[in-house]
Amino acid sequence: MRIIIVGAGMVGYHLSEKLSEEGQEVVLIDQDESKLRRLERILNIQTIRGSGASARVLEEAGIAKTDLFIAVTDSDEVNLIACIISKNYNVTTRIARVRNDDFYTQGTSQAEKALGIDLLISPDLAMADEIMQLINVSAAFEVAEFAHGQVELLGYVAMEDHPCVGSTLLYLRDMQGIYDFVIVAITRGDQTIIPHGQDTIEAGDKVYLVTRKTDVPVVERLLFNAESQAPENVFIVGGGTIGYLVARRLEQKKINVRIVEQDAGRCEFLSEQLEHAMVLNSDGLEAQDLLDEGIDQADLVIAVTNSDTTNILSSLLAKHHGTKKCITHINSPGFIPMLGKLGIDVALSPRQVAANMILRFVRGGGKIVNVATLVGSDAEVIEIKVPLQEHFIDLPLKDLDFPKGSIVGAIIRKDQVIIPSGNTKLQPGDNLVVFFTHKALSSLESLFHE
Hints:
CATH topology of the domain at 2-121: Rossmann fold
Distance between the termini: 18 Å
Radius of gyration: 23 Å
Strand content: 25-35%
CATH superfamily of the domain at 2-121: NAD(P)-binding Rossmann-like Domain
């Protein structure tokens, strides 16, 4: 598939990297020649210098033979004009990143239809959605839903006193009883392990598991002595779009919210738009102000200013004084892997979240039903359909030649969710939830080629 990406920022880079790794023909357009030269050296892509809003530049990039067009510059106008120009060519799918809130007040579907764009994505809205999903399963640092919400992939940090620490996967499998789960990966340092029965969970491991949504509370207690519950008190540092969207949704859940914003004019807007949240005009770096307002008493702190420094320091302050959990906005995703070592629970990059949302849309459909890219990891989870072929009738899972670096976490058969073992038999039409490292995707798709 030929793909044109306009914009070589963090979103464009992440998309170019992922899609080129899958063997797609990627052309990247940007006006910054030095940035293009650098990316051309490290990625297997073609680059074109120029404006994505120029028909001449798009024609030079081969727009007439392009299947997928993605515009993700920092300019809404450039992204929209580029997509509108692409309508004059036989481009199958068009995607634009748009920051202006006006496109979302009436719902994205109307704007998409009016502009002839297949997907409009707001990094701020995507970030707010991600934060709310993490709030619903408070003990986890990673959450992804499959099978229309029936199946969840969850990530937990194993602590010294957790029941799972020191146990082999085989032992845990024997003790699980009627509550089914599959531990699909362990991240230890920089290494992602697709585990086997004799692998042992160690303190400090990040443990990824797949289970039915209804079994989450029992599995949490069994493995991590934890219990996810909605927070009663949430402290938000930063009253921009993300902070406002999250505060509004938390109010709807009857959760107490305090929101800190430095700009006095923005505070007035927040006070007018939010019904119950307490709005505080203060700097997110004023430690004593934050403590006076009760940041140390919060069940959850969400730091979402535009400053990485402010977000990191306010999160560290909160954790130092006993806050249970922090979700921290980071503009530079390269910092994410090191933040866990500082005690920050969840670090999210809006650019990476937006890029992952685009990847889910691009890959969805056909035999691939859904994809989740895990933030700060080279691993992904895919929901893929088993072809309607005789070869797959009653085929034991252990006899399917899965590529190295992949594991099945769940099977969805009509309305039934099966947490499988090696002896579980497949049927054509099943959906499989598969955890895999990024190098295994093409092999997975080939395995289920129709």
